[in-house]
Amino acid sequence: MTGFRTFYDFGSLRSFLNEGAKVPQIGLVPTMGALHIGHVSLIERALKENDIVVVTIFVNPKQFNNPIDLEKYPRVPEKDLALLNVYDRVVVCIPQVNDVYPENDPYEKIELGLLDTVLEGEFRPGHFDGVAHVVHNLMFYTKPSKAYFGLKDIQQLSVIKHMVASTKRPVDVVACQTVRDAHGLALSSRNLLLNEAKHKEALIIYKTLSFVKSNIKVLGKEETLKQAQAIFNQSSLELEYLDVVNQTTFGPYKKEGDDNVCCISAFCEKVRLIDNILL
Ligand code: PAF
């Protein structure tokens, strides 16, 4: 079962995957397309750990609380397929909305608690319900053993782990390191929307996070965040939030803990960028 293939619905994907004498072990890499090196690193890890890697490309309308953001989201399917077709054991699925969300939808909404009310949860109401729903359904229809997500979206990762535990989906959620460019900017499909000058200005995000990581143990939370914000404010970016929390529960930061994370969200012109650093 080798050779790059593309499918446009789950039915034909499943028939293909069930063709052989033995059902292959599947690694799922869900994406919204506009693929970059960060996605490639997830795919390459998944290739090492599975027989077949299913990459889904689906710009999920349910996770956009802002219709303009949904409309502007970069869509470059030809480029995506050109990037992927060098992989022999990669299968791409580009499903339609009614395939992901059929009338007989297999998802039963779960409570997300704190994860849905702080930071990303606060600023993007409904976003994580949409993420939990789509990832559940993608797992339901592609039947992976493992699914791969980047630590860049750390709150999303916690939501997905919570959804998998609550719905008892038999899938291992694998967290993969954030991939950064040479200057520290976390790779994101949204970076495609930045021109060269804005790209440079966006580096303040990683500078601010690095400041927090280096200083929080000595200066404490309040003072570190105050100074970090002053550094950030020298840029033209607009800060949405900068905070430190527990990296699993997203509950309060505890000085003694070694499982904290500093999260940031900012607008670079109209492009919303998020990032984080483990403390
Ligand atoms: O991180 C993303 O690209 C999306 O949120 C995901 C996980 C593919 C769900 O649509």
In short:
The chain contains 11 helices and 9 strands. By secondary structure, it is an alpha/beta fold. The chain folds into 2 domains: 5-176, 3-Layer(aba) Sandwich (Rossmann fold); 189-278, Pantoate--beta-alanine Ligase, Chain: A,domain 2.
Which key phrases capture this entry?
279 residues, alpha/beta, Rossmann fold, Pantoate--beta-alanine Ligase, Chain: A,domain 2, 2 domains, 6-stranded parallel β-sheet, 3-stranded antiparallel β-sheet, binds pantoate
Characterise this structure.
It is a single chain. With 279 residues, the protein is α/β, with parallel strands linked by helices. It folds into two domains: 5-176, 3-Layer(aba) Sandwich (Rossmann fold), CATH 3.40.50; 189-278, 2-Layer Sandwich (Pantoate--beta-alanine Ligase, Chain: A,domain 2). It has helices spanning 10-17, 37-49, 67-72, 77-84, 97-100, 120-123, 127-142, 154-167, 196-201, 204-219, 221-232, and strands at 5-7, 26-31, 52-57, 90-93, 146-150, 172-176, 238-246, 260-268, 271-278. A six-stranded parallel beta sheet has the order 1-4-3-2-5-6, with helices on both faces. Strands 7-8-9 form a three-stranded antiparallel beta sheet, with helices on one face. Helix 7 packs across helix 8 and helix 10 packs antiparallel against helix 11 (221-232). The longest helix is centred in the middle third of the chain and has 16 residues, at 127-142. It starts with a strand and ends with a strand. The model has no long low-confidence stretch (mean pLDDT 95). Residues 30-32, 60, 63, 131, 134-135, 153, 156 line the site of pantoate (PAF).
